[in-house]
Automatic annotation (TrEMBL), chain A:
<dbReference type="InterPro" id="IPR006058">
    <property type="entry name" value="2Fe2S_fd_BS"/>
</dbReference>
<keyword id="KW-0411">Iron-sulfur</keyword>
<keyword id="KW-0001">2Fe-2S</keyword>
<dbReference type="InterPro" id="IPR002888">
    <property type="entry name" value="2Fe-2S-bd"/>
</dbReference>
<dbReference type="GO" id="GO:0051537">
    <property type="term" value="F:2 iron, 2 sulfur cluster binding"/>
</dbReference>
<comment type="pathway">
    <text>Alkaloid degradation; nicotine degradation.</text>
</comment>
<dbReference type="InterPro" id="IPR036010">
    <property type="entry name" value="2Fe-2S_ferredoxin-like_sf"/>
</dbReference>
<protein>
    <recommendedName>
        <fullName>2Fe-2S ferredoxin-type domain-containing protein</fullName>
    </recommendedName>
</protein>
<dbReference type="InterPro" id="IPR012675">
    <property type="entry name" value="Beta-grasp_dom_sf"/>
</dbReference>
TrEMBL record, chain B:
<dbReference type="InterPro" id="IPR037165">
    <property type="entry name" value="AldOxase/xan_DH_Mopterin-bd_sf"/>
</dbReference>
<dbReference type="GO" id="GO:0016491">
    <property type="term" value="F:oxidoreductase activity"/>
</dbReference>
<dbReference type="InterPro" id="IPR016208">
    <property type="entry name" value="Ald_Oxase/xanthine_DH-like"/>
</dbReference>
<protein>
    <recommendedName>
        <fullName>Aldehyde oxidase/xanthine dehydrogenase a/b hammerhead domain-containing protein</fullName>
    </recommendedName>
</protein>
<dbReference type="InterPro" id="IPR000674">
    <property type="entry name" value="Ald_Oxase/Xan_DH_a/b"/>
</dbReference>
<dbReference type="GO" id="GO:0005506">
    <property type="term" value="F:iron ion binding"/>
</dbReference>
<dbReference type="Pfam" id="PF20256">
    <property type="entry name" value="MoCoBD_2"/>
</dbReference>
<dbReference type="InterPro" id="IPR036856">
    <property type="entry name" value="Ald_Oxase/Xan_DH_a/b_sf"/>
</dbReference>
<dbReference type="InterPro" id="IPR008274">
    <property type="entry name" value="AldOxase/xan_DH_MoCoBD1"/>
</dbReference>
Length: 168, 792
């Protein structure tokens, strides 16, 4: 059924592994991640970049994967929620979200965790207001953001105290 | 042996059972199952662009001819079960037959090999409409001369009770007469009266509604959905709508879901997806877009309230008269009658004379369904605001008037019900202390003015039927709880797990939860009215006790003791009153023996199964002979309470509002898991902050103007106060019949937020908002009106 004559080749890195995609150029990054690569941890809550559930890291910076075409990630490094932990060892941001009860329905959680990591990538000492600024593109309807902001602060403190490097 | 204190998990913030899978992206939501199906069909729906129009003709021939289109459904198709009843509340997701009654109603549905083909097919559909007059304002929809929401020639009554004398759009009414209101107003020293309006809003959970329906070879269906109530709602409705499907042919599974807040309490997407699966004999997926979430999935119901209060000089309120109208949106044969919202005006204050006339009316707007709080945030908006007016006239402070008049434990409310749990007094005092209501705000010369306000709230719990639970004791000694309650994120399965571990006095790591699959887990109705902790919780306790009873008997048999001489803890049986271990539970399960065949006793590999069934005591009818006054000793079940205080800044030049500091308190009953309760407080406060000052449906020419997440403005991290300015407390009054004395709490949190902000606005700039949300535009208009009045 599908006409593959206009497909494009996209080479990129997903969660530390090289990936070579042969896909339609009108595909969004989130659809390719979910449907082609089976990385369903990246969520879709809207289709116009407003909810932030589809947030991924692109070369370490937060990006909304529903608003990007697949050609835009050529030769870039993508990190999804599946690539955040090191095997069974959780990233400090994930552990902080669990410890602080920052997770309720969980649908915004992958995007929130990745935005949190991106904030600290840019500024390892981000204060509460800077964290709030960095999270404002991610909507949550369950938590009121209180424990989410607390989780990012705790992750920041743990990472700074333990010298744990944020390598994503 | 274990220390019992260590296995008492009540009141402990045990980590959520689902936290790890959600933090790692491993949690599977319904849409994540799509990739398992290589031959999936996708459903897309053409929706009405008009608020009210007659369908003259629909031509789907070009759509049907498009390669990749498998089937097309329109309301006039004769094989669909709802074609004689296209609008009733449970059916509002399905294609219209004769006319469309709101902009967003389904008209044609397509199932195709891909989303793109389905969307292309919809563009080929030709629909000819004849425009009809519409009404989107609930005040204009009332009355005998109102524009009818459906054409009169269709002869479809708005309410399930048939045509109502009050007007063509009136669905039903609830009236209550308590005491002698006219006499009480004559005796009152002070009388206040005002009209209030609360607006239309969408729950806006981040996961859009949708389902996957897998066609089964026996002609049945397996439904994987984020809809609520796998047994009580979805399966029941599907069986009612499709007579060819019998109970064994419908399996409903609710995987991890992304919020609901009431929005998913009616089957919106499942009926159409099932029809498509039955027609095509294939697996289909139907997922709403965000725009469809706003224009076709239900909103709250807006409420108009005209409220009058009379009080004695000492502040005792002796008379309450209310006229309340719920706007149920575009639904026909709906169940609304004003009773749900008016309950908010009956459950907080003890007023000896009450006259309540409440109605529900339909309009040509998005159909309405429960929104966290069940219409009480909308009605108590009136009560709490008017109480402030009354307090000012009496020269009382807002705390004092509320404490003086609130219902006390053991007292009887206006319905005639005895209230058995109310912790509101300490909730109110705590917020007043928390925001230092007695200390006036410092003002300066800038445009920002500052004020503080407090408000109280109560919310009924509806007796909504049965919950069942199974408790398996596996032959390794571990526990598995099987329930069908909804888990929309609130963490209830974690709380239920804590109850089970506490009952068994066992390490919680040995308790597993299995949930919401009608083929495996027993009946539950649905997660509404904050009922799950209470109703399903009680069922879990009963199931655990049943299983423990069986273990005691089996252990007693081992050593020749009666079961009442046995106690179970830490996975072992002991003799009551001594620390003598009888047997490890795992050892009660015997391996298969060729010479006895093990037809008796506990067999290794098959668990002991405890059964629990719990129903709240039923309501006593409030209508019919002997109930002309609308009163009854049992209308609702129990009540949750909350108080809220806020310090706000209002910009006199722009009308903008900033929340500087807030405090919320919850009477949750005895909290099972305090961190989970805190999460409900935080989320409830911010959701309510949104609909109090920001988010609402905006209509123009009969259509919603803002059906997306940039124009429909929801609170982000920037609109919410810093952590140090966000205070909260759990101040429980134990519920006698709650599981471990807990009750639900997630709804009352919402209710006092708006009125407390309104009170603070009045203190800051001297205007009293009567409409919610209090957007910058509406506050600026109040400021300008006040200036114009002062100029006169």
């Amino acid at each position: 059924m599908q006409n593959k004559s206009n497909f494009i080749k996209v080479d990129c890195e997903v969660n530390g592994k090289p990936v070579s995609l042969h896909v339609s150029p009108d595909q969004t990054v989130v659809d390719v991640l979910r449907n082609e690569l089976g990385l369903t941890g990246t969520k879709k809550g809207c289709d116009d970049g407003n909810c932030g559930a589809c947030t991924i890291l692109l070369d370490g910076k937060a990006a909304k994967s529903c608003s990007m075409l697949i050609g835009q990630v050529r030769n870039k490094k993508i990190t999804t929620i599946e690539g955040v932990s090191n095997g069974e060892i959780l990233h400090p941001m994930q552990q902080a979200f669990i410890d602080t009860f920052a997770i309720q329905c969980g649908f915004c959680t992958p995007g929130m965790i990745l935005s949190g990591i991106a904030i600290l990538n840019e500024n390892p000492d981000a204060d509460e207001e800077e964290i709030r600024e960095g999270l404002h593109g991610n909507l949550c309807r369950c938590t009121g953001y209180v424990k989410i902001v607390e989780a990012v602060e705790i992750a920041r403190d743990r990472m700074n105290a333990g010298g744990a490097k944020n390598e994503i | 042996m274990s220390d019992c204190e260590n296995t008492n998990y009540i009141g402990k913030s045990v980590q959520r059972v689902d936290a790890f899978e959600k933090a790692t992206g491993k949690a599977k939501y319904f849409e994540d199952y799509q990739i398992q199906y290589r031959d999936l069909l996708h459903v897309k729906v053409l929706r009405s662009p008009h608020a009210h129009a007659k369908i003259i003709s629909i031509d789907v021939s070009a759509a049907e001819a498009l390669p990749g289109v498998i089937t097309v459904v329109k309301g006039s198709d004769t094989d669909i079960p709802w074609s004689d009843l296209p609008y009733a509340s449970a059916y509002y997701g399905n294609p219209a037959r004769y006319e469309v009654i709101w902009a967003g109603q389904a008209v044609v549905a397509v199932a195709a090999e891909s989303i793109e083909i389905a969307e292309e097919a919809l563009e080929l559909v030709k629909v000819e409409y004849e425009m009809l007059p519409y009404v989107t304002d609930q005040r204009l929809a009332m009355g005998v001369d109102a524009i009818p929401v459906t054409s009169p020639e269709l002869e479809i009554a708005a309410g399930y009770g048939g045509p109502q004398p009050e007007g063509p759009n009136v669905m039903g009414s609830y009236k209550l007469r308590h005491g002698d209101v006219d006499k009480a107003f004559e005796e009152a020293d002070v009388i206040v009266e005002e009209e209030y309006q609360a607006g239309k809003k969408s729950t806006s959970q981040i996961e859009c509604n949708g389902s996957i329906v897998e066609y089964q070879q026996d002609g049945g269906v397996k439904i994987i959905t984020n809809g609520c109530g796998v047994h009580g709602v979805i399966k029941n409705h599907i069986l009612t709508m499709y007579p060819q499907l019998t109970s064994s042919k419908v399996r409903v599974i609710q995987p991890v879901t992304g919020g609901s807040f009431g929005n998913r309490l009616f089957p919106l997407v499942e009926p159409l997806a099932v029809l498509m699966a039955l027609r095509t004999k294939r697996t289909v997926s139907y997922v709403l877009t965000r725009k469809e979430m706003y224009t076709s999935s239900p909103s709250n119901w807006p409420v108009y309230t005209k409220l009058k209060l009379g009080a004695k000089k000492d502040g005792t309120i002796i008379a309450e008269k209310l006229e309340l109208v719920e706007d149920a949106g575009a639904q026909i044969r709906g169940y609304f009658d004003g009773r749900l919202s008016s309950s908010g005006l009956m459950c907080v204050y003890n007023i000896p004379n009450v006259h309540c006339d409440s109605y529900a009316v339909s309009t040509n707007t998005v159909p309405c369904a429960p929104y966290r709080g069940l219409g009480c945030a909308e009605s108590e908006w009136a009560m709490e605001n008017l109480l402030d007016v009354l307090a000012e006239k009496l020269d009382m402070d807002p705390l004092e008037i509320r404490l003086k008049n609130m219902i006390k434990n053991g007292e009887t409310n206006a319905y005639g019900e005895k209230v058995t749990s109310i912790g509101l007094g300490k909730c109110l005092k705590a917020v007043a202390d928390g925001i230092k209501i007695d200390e006036p705000c410092q003002q300066d010369d800038g445009p920002w003015k500052y004020g503080k306000g407090i408000a109280a709230a109560g919310k009924q719990n509806t007796p909504l039927g049965r919950a069942e639970a199974d408790c398996l004791v596996h032959s390794d000694g571990s526990i598995e709880i099987l329930v069908s309650c909804d888990e929309q994120g609130m963490g209830v399965q974690s709380a239920l797990r804590q109850m089970a571990a506490t009952e068994f006095k066992i390490d919680i790591a040995r308790v597993k939860m299995t949930r919401a699959d009608t083929a495996i887990t027993p009946f539950d109705n649905f997660g509404a009215s904050s009922r799950t902790t209470y109703t399903t919780g009680n069922a879990v306790i009963i199931a655990c006790q049943d299983a423990i009873d069986q273990l005691k008997e089996a252990a007693g048999r081992e050593v020749g003791l009666a079961k009442k001489q046995i106690t179970i803890k830490d996975g072992k049986a002991y003799i009551v009153g001594s620390n003598t271990e009888v047997i490890d539970i795992a050892d009660l399960f015997k391996p298969f023996d060729f010479f006895t065949q093990q037809t008796w006793g506990l067999l290794k590999g098959t668990p002991v199964r405890g059964r629990g069934v719990f129903c709240p005591a039923p309501a006593v009818p409030w209508f019919g002979p002997g109930h002309e006054d609308g009163r009854t000793p049992r209308m609702w079940n129990w009540y949750q309470f909350s108080a809220f205080g806020a310090e706000v800044a209002v910009n006199e030049e722009t009308g903008q509002i900033k929340i500087l500091k807030l405090m919320s308190t919850a009477d949750s009953g005895n909290p099972i898991n305090p961190k989970l309760v805190e999460g409900q407080i935080d989320g409830g406060v911010i959701m309510a902050l949104g609909f109090s000052i920001m988010d609402h449906h905006m209509y123009q020419d009969g259509k919603m103007m803002n059906p997306n997440m940039s124009d429909y403005r929801l609170p982000t991290t920037l609109e919410t106060p810093l952590q140090k300015n966000f205070m909260r407390a759990i101040l429980p009054d134990p519920l006698p019949d709650g599981p471990f004395n807990a009750k639900g709490m997630a709804e009352s949190i919402m209710i006092p937020v708006g009125p407390a902000i309104a009170s603070a606005i009045y203190q800051a700039i001297g205007v009293r908002p009567t409409e919610m949300p209090m957007t910058a535009e509406s506050i600026l208009k109040l400021i300008k009106d006040k200036e114009a009045n002062n100029a006169k």
